[in-house]
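Title: Prediction job returns without error message
Component: structure pipeline
Severity: low
Priority: P3
Assignee: unassigned

Description:
Job completed but the reporter wants confirmation the result is attached to the right record. Sequence as submitted:
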Amino acid sequence: MMNDSVLSIIYHSSFIINMLILSLDTSTTVCSVALHKDGVLLGCHELYTERTSAAMLTTLISNVVQQTGHELNQLNAVAVAKGPGSYTGLRIGVSTAKGLCFALDKPLLAINTLAALAAQVRSYFPTDYVLCPMIDARRMEVYCALYTTEGEEIKPTWAQIIDDNSFNEWLIQSPVVFFGDGAAKCRALLGEQTNAIFPDVNVVPSARTVGQLATHAFSENQFENLATFEPFYLKDFMTTQPKKAVL
């Protein structure tokens, strides 16, 4: 097994042609797998489901790799959406990605789910717009971040409880585009503001854009430590206490 420093030297010292990256995104209710060659999408399978399972993900991986005429041992890296998102979904995605990397002796790349979400829409808006991808959290809370349409991070990922004053400091400066499955709860409170933009299109996380960003991350040697890497939960996992039985 090659350690991280050796991997970095190898990939930094040589340009890989026909670079294959397998990408996984299980951070929300969409379970998706994509295969990219030199940044070009070869195949993608997406499954819309309320709960992701390891069996579902394994099947999608097998289908994408085989249907594009490749084998797992041809991969140069595995990328995964690291979060934020569903606790269970993230655990499944990251565990599967790490398992593949250990078994195949390949490096791991981790992409912020919100950054990949923003990458889907940034070419559709002018450069003076701010992009705010949102993932639904509990009650009136969302996970969000702010990006320029060039992909530059304006404000890193944080958990926001939505109220009438949310995002005011950015809305008074420029148009802000809110999208993702957390945008609906924000629209009810901010939809009347002039600079608040809510596209009438369903934008969901996808391994398609995880793979695009992972290609750049690969070229920058942004590999994760397989032994210590954990999903980006943003918040501690909350459980519901079981109710006591009434005798």
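Comment from assignee: result matches the submitted record. The chain has a mean pLDDT of 89.
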